[in-house]
Design brief:
The protein is α/β, with parallel strands linked by helices and 457 residues long. It folds into 2 domains: 166 residues, D-Maltodextrin-Binding Protein, domain 2, CATH 3.40.190; 221 residues, D-Maltodextrin-Binding Protein, domain 2. 46% of the residues lie in helices and 13% in strands. Strands 7, 8, 9, 10, 11 and 13 form a 6-stranded mixed sheet that branches. Helix 9 packs across helix 16 and helix 15 packs antiparallel against helix 16. The longest helix is centred in the N-terminal third of the chain and has 31 residues. The protein starts with a helix and ends with a helix.
Length: 457
């Protein structure tokens, strides 16, 4: 047994030695190039060095899941086109991104490579500080400079520093099923509108969904009110000093908002509710109407939080107010929200190439149509009407389109027209007004004081 084992081990040793010798000879032969029949070893292709882009977006929450899915698809395509690229997604709620995160990052110089940004006044301010990438040559290179409905909010001194992701408008969503059951009709005059609010309240429902923890939400309503009392063009004069927050027509709008709060037309305790609660109140049937942006039409699609209301939601414009100034059909419509890019991207050729890919993949006619159909975001680019008609089958989106077609002018949201400090003060004051801690007159005085300071007066 021991002999057999010894013999076996000896044979293994001899065989191993022979194989080692063969390997050595083969290597030597290949090195000398004397064995023409030996297969040469091919080198593995060298992998590109990894690099990263940070992308700050605001597509967070269930209501924005469709547009987040579109963004993820664009990111995946862009990564596939740029070897070694990883795009790190950083989702932040819109108001926090705009008023806290982005402002701090711009001050510190630690800016995301790609970031969600408001065009006016934010992008123009940051561009003036040299913080944003000039996109003008990129748009020329990609051949899309003339494909947008408007780039004004992102343009400074003739150069483009950001691109709008879509357009939006603000109006009243209403519960068609409830209206029909109660015999209510869409108001066409201010008297009918105020009667409707009173009748809904008397029926035991909340007339308008309310969620004012973030001040921009109730300010959508106030902005619409003063566009009726003071006129849609009035707010353009704040930053120049040509218009005053203390003007009687402005005070009238603040007073009307306070009147609606006092009459219980918004849900009690609205200052404690986040924006998402606005949709919850409407979808649950607690509120009969909801003043909000057209982007919210996406929640009334399959898989959305308002799926059960598909076909039961309508949309209308706030009627003309008695004695109102200017065009009384005007609605808030703009293309002020989009993406900007850090100026530092230009220092890295690979990052610059990746940014070009991102823009090429996101800003297409097909993506604009998908945004409209899947998410209710109005196009910010010129899109063939025939394609829109062929793709838009949702009755709510068709109703929104009809309402928009019935307007003869539009106005931008006020925060695109005033300085950041003015916006902050107005936000504080509107919440104080809702909470009964100030009056319409004192609100107007407080905001005008800061406006004068911002204007250097």
């Amino acid at each position: 047994m021991k002999k057999s084992l010894t013999l076996l081990l000896t044979l293994i040793f001899v065989a191993s030695a022979a194989l080692t010798g063969c390997g050595s000879n083969n290597t030597e032969t290949q090195a000398n190039g004397s064995d023409k029949g030996t297969e040469t070893k091919t080198e593995e292709p060298k992998k590109a060095e990894p690099f990263e882009l940070k992308l700050r977006h605001t597509q967070v929450g269930d209501a924005k899941k469709n547009r987040f899915a579109i963004l993820e698809e664009v990111v995946k395509t862009t990564q596939g086109e740029n070897e070694g690229l990883t795009i790190k997604l950083d989702g932040v709620e819109s108001d926090i991104n705009r008023k806290e995160k982005l402002r701090g990052e711009m001050a510190a110089g630690d800016i995301p490579d790609i970031f969600d940004v408001f065009g006016s006044p934010d992008a123009k301010l940051y561009a003036g500080q040299g913080k944003m990438l000039d996109l003008t040559p990129i748009l020329d290179e990609l051949g899309i400079k003339d494909k947008f409905t408007g780039l004004g909010p992102f343009t400074l001194d003739g150069k483009v520093y950001g691109l709008p992701i879509g357009a939006s408008a603000e109006g009243v969503f209403y519960n068609k099923e409830y209206f029909t059951a109660k015999g209510f009709k869409v108001p066409t005059t201010w008297a009918e509108w105020e009667k409707l609010l009173a009748d809904v309240k008397a029926d035991g429902k909340t007339p308008l969904a309310g969620a004012s923890k973030a001040a921009w939400v109730p300010l959508m309503v106030t902005n619409q009110l003063w566009s009726r009392t003071a006129g849609p063009e009035f707010a353009k004069g704040f930053a120049t000093g040509d218009a005053k927050w203390t003007d009687p027509t402005m005070v009238k709008a603040f007073a009307k908002h306070k009147e609606w709060v006092d009459k219980g037309y918004f849900k009690k305790g609205e200052l404690g509710f986040e924006y998402a609660e606005l949709q919850t109140q409407f979808v649950s049937g607690e509120a009969a109407m909801m003043f909000d942006g057209t982007w919210q039409s996406s929640i009334f699609k399959a898989g959305g939080i308002g799926e059960k209301m598909i076909g039961k939601v309508g949309f209308f414009n706030v009627p003309a107010i008695d004695g109102g100034q200017g065009d009384q059909t005007a609605m808030m419509q703009d293309t002020n929200n989009g993406y900007g890019f850090s100026a530092k991207v230009a220092e890295d050729p690979r990052k610059l190439a990746a940014v070009k890919s991102f823009i090429k993949n996101l800003y297409t006619e097909d993506m604009q149509i998908r945004g409209l159909v899947e998410d209710g975001v109005l196009p910010a680019m010129l899109v063939d009407k025939a394609k829109i008609d062929a793709n838009v089958t949702d009755p709510l989106m068709k109703e929104i389109a009809t309402v928009l077609a019935g307007t003869t002018s539009s106005f931008p949201a006020f925060d695109a027209l005033v300085q950041a400090d003015v916006n902050t003060t107005l936000s504080i004051e509107i919440q104080k007004l809702i909470g009964g801690q100030t009056t319409p007159e004192k609100l107007a005085e407080a905001v005008q004081k800061v406006q004068d300071e911002a204007n250097g007066q």
